[in-house]
Automatic annotation (TrEMBL):
<feature type="domain" description="CRAL-TRIO">
    <location>
        <begin position="95"/>
        <end position="259"/>
    </location>
</feature>
<dbReference type="GO" id="GO:1902936">
    <property type="term" value="F:phosphatidylinositol bisphosphate binding"/>
</dbReference>
<dbReference type="InterPro" id="IPR001251">
    <property type="entry name" value="CRAL-TRIO_dom"/>
</dbReference>
<dbReference type="GO" id="GO:0016020">
    <property type="term" value="C:membrane"/>
</dbReference>
<dbReference type="InterPro" id="IPR036865">
    <property type="entry name" value="CRAL-TRIO_dom_sf"/>
</dbReference>
<protein>
    <recommendedName>
        <fullName>CRAL-TRIO domain-containing protein</fullName>
    </recommendedName>
</protein>
<dbReference type="Pfam" id="PF00650">
    <property type="entry name" value="CRAL_TRIO"/>
</dbReference>
Amino acid sequence: MYLTLKQKLLEVPEGTAQQIQMLYGYDERKMNEAVDILEEWLKKQNHFLKKDFPRIYLETNIIGSKGSIERTKSKLDKLFALRTVLRKFYEFNDIRNEFKNLFSCSYILAMPKLTKENNRLFVLKVIGNEFFDKVPYLDYYKIMIAYVEYFRMYDYSDGYRVVIDYRDINIMNIIARLNLVEVKEFFTVILSGYGARLKGIHIISTSKAVENLLRIITPLFNPKLVARFRVHGTLESLHEVISQDMLPKELGGTGRSLKEIQDDWIDLLSSKETSEFFREINKAQVNEAYRMDDLKNEEMGLPGTFRTLSVD
């Protein structure tokens, strides 16, 4: 069942990996050589608590760093350090039950098909029902990190596009509960740690309050990423930039319903195989006492610095 679900939820057409590799100057031989270099480097990092990783995990991290081995080293180092310092984002064991309230007021999932640019489409739809006030925002950050961690191991894409549907929620309620320090920490992990490349953030809403929300959060990002935010007042506007065959029924698409897809993702992320993967990858932390260089928390953009987050 696990393999069937994985293939159903993350479609990667034959030849996609080769296409993406070519964008960054790689073929199979060069990629194998790059992974070999990373494996040797990992063995020499005294401060890493885990040094052995599946080769595909290292390969997708190279792709996420636009093919740069040195950038991949830096991001892995930063990711493992962030995982150590910001443990709260990784405290999940039972996806199905720990996020039960979240799944009752939100759909949060990846769509099965890659876009024509080989981006993975991520959809978040929030419903302002009785469960919404019971869900700490930390749960949203944790489940999104679980997804990105899973993608690093089992997906092959060239960045992400995000669609956020706020039509069924009072945005002022969202703003009232925002903790900007926590938002900053979360995006530091996603952008600086995982190096996730966000190609577009599409918000569906007719509320003028969305402008207030963007005014609050966009100062955290650099202008390049801010320019990738776009608000859509109608589904027709969204369809101008994202094909309907990529979208679920609720967003005017031809895909399956959000509930059907989310139920499958809950099964996959709650499976024995995925739980074992999360437990193993969470060992990838650091012991700063053994670090050879002097990477500081400030350099990782942790709270207190509020450096502007960049995006590739």
